[in-house]
Design a protein that fits this description.
By secondary structure, this protein is α/β, with parallel strands linked by helices. 40% of the residues lie in helices and 17% in strands. The chain has three domains: 125 residues, 3-Layer(aba) Sandwich (Rossmann fold); 101 residues, Translation Initiation Factor IF3 (2-Layer Sandwich); 72 residues, 3-Layer(aba) Sandwich (Hypothetical Protein Ychn, Chain: A), CATH 3.40.1260.
Length: 327
């Protein structure tokens, strides 16, 4: 099967990452209202592609998300409101009841149109923890009482500590060139006037900073949120360099993932080249072991599809993610 690749803007052969098995993601409904014809057309197209893949003899696992939170009225505006909350106000139901009502409705509509349900239908609310983990990291600064512990006036001690911390924070932001979202957790102060004094002192301390900053007033919990536009690389990047092996990613592809890439490229390569009796692939020893043991059946299935023998050779000096294919 050949499909149009919108990223590369060309028609390409469909070659599964895992030989013989396609894992297919399709965009699902936002369940704060009934689905309209445009939504259902999208679901029908996904169903058509799935059926076509199955006709090619491929096993298909379809995943379709359900957006039951976080669909904003305007993604670019800080004043945007979650459409689910608007539906709650309009219909007098809870958010859970709204989501369940329109989820049932969209599945009923899909069934009437002959659209088969996806194998997995994860809801946004079921994966909030994962979303938080994937969110870009922020800088958090925590202030403690340090050397000022011991005076009789606790509020005065806390104020002095926070004011002393403000000077150091303003300096460290410049010295380390920290950027993005920064949250400063000051020690709680009961008096509003003291919270305003710390806020004003921080604003004054940031006037020496050439980078653009935006500071929000302190909350009753003692938190100040601010942003700072980084003008150059931060100190950590200046004093370190990316890992030579993982190239700074902090992780490597799983061995099985690399094996599937190898098998996929082997199939693509044999479709583009002549009918040589065999094709060879040089891989890292760890990848060779997985291909010959855990993924042996996948290699056998590939040989049957391309009608060639696949010769797997180990090459010590290859990066674990690298491989070489030759006919």
């Amino acid at each position: 099967m050949r499909l149009y690749d919108s990223l590369r803007r060309r028609i390409e052969e469909v070659v599964p990452v895992e030989p013989g098995h396609v894992r297919m993601y399709s965009c699902g409904p936002t369940v704060y209202r009934y689905a309209h014809l445009g939504n259902l057309r999208t679901f029908m197209l996904a169903d058509l592609i799935r059926r076509a893949l199955e006709l090619e003899g491929l096993r298909v696992t379809q995943i379709m998300n359900i957006t039951d939170v976080g669909h904003m009225t305007d993604e670019s505006s800080p004043e945007a409101v979650d459409k689910m909350l608007l539906a709650v106000e309009d219909e007098g139901l809870t958010a859970l009841q709204i989501a369940e009502k329109y989820t049932r409705a969209v599945f009923t509509d899909a069934e009437r149109l002959g659209i088969r349900p996806a194998d997995v239908t994860p809801k946004a609310t079921e994966h909030i923890d994962e979303m938080i983990e994937l969110t870009e990291a922020l800088t958090a600064i925590d202030v403690n009482t340090g050397s000022f512990v011991g005076t009789r006036n606790l509020e005065e001690t806390i104020l002095k500590t926070n004011l002393e911390a403000v000077k150091e924070i303003a300096y460290q932001l410049r010295f380390r060139n920290l950027g993005g979202l920064i949250v400063i957790d000051f020690i709680d102060m009961e008096r509003k006037s003291n919270r305003e004094k710390v806020f004003t002192t921080l604003k004054e301390g940031l006037t020496k900073d050439k980078a653009k900053t935006h500071v929000l007033k302190m909350s009753e919990l003692g938190l100040i949120e601010m942003t700072r536009k980084r003008t150059r690389e931060n100190l950590n990047r200046l004093l370190s360099e990316p890992c030579f092996y993982c190239e700074g990613r902090g992780s490597l592809k799983a061995k099985r993932t690399i094996c599937y890439e190898v098998l996929r490229d082997l199939e693509r390569e044999t479709n583009l080249t002549g009918q040589a009796p065999q094709v060879s692939v040089h891989v890292h020893p760890d990848i060779a072991r997985v291909l010959k043991e855990e993924e042996q059946q996948s290699v056998i299935d590939l040989e049957r599809r391309i009608n060639r023998r696949v010769v797997i050779s180990e090459k010590e000096n290859l990066h674990i993610e690298q491989y070489e294919i030759s006919s």
